[in-house]
Amino acid sequence: MGMSVTIGSATEQDVEQILKLQYLCYQSEAELYGDYTIAPLTQTLAELRAEAADTCVLVARLGDEVVGSVRGGVGADGTADIGRLIVHPRMQRHGLGGRLLAAIEQRLAAERAAARYRLFTGHRSAGNLRLYRRLGYAQVGTEQVSRHLSLVTLEKPVAGFGSVDERPLAASA
Fold this sequence. Notes:
Helices cover about 35% and strands about 30% of the residues. By secondary structure, the protein is an alpha+beta fold. It has a 7-stranded mixed β-sheet with strand order 1-2-3-4-5-7-6, with helices on both faces.
């Protein structure tokens, strides 16, 4: 008898589990870049609570356990900034990250009028880059933030807001 993973809005009771999962998930990133002071590892519970109050936060649950999360918000220009996509290590490579990303995209477009999605990851995070590219994101910039880390920014349009698939067809002669 197996349980299904469900995705839904985070509650106030989820915040502590999200922070613990975030700490676990970002250990590999910290090791990859030799920097254990990255923001996801230094964020406090109070900071996460404040962030959760201002953004859309989704969680993936297996029973009562939070096994994944993602968050995002939409700026005045319609750009949805998506971040902190995390999946418990034992749940990775089963499509959960893609499901969480699709769910936050859908929520931000429907409820917050997103016209474009933006996210970033470290230049050495090959798995993240593969996932984002596979899901339609294209690199739009790179910013060197330290000697060991460059952040790669990726974007994709919301369907119907300038995507290639939404362009009108040329008239036939």
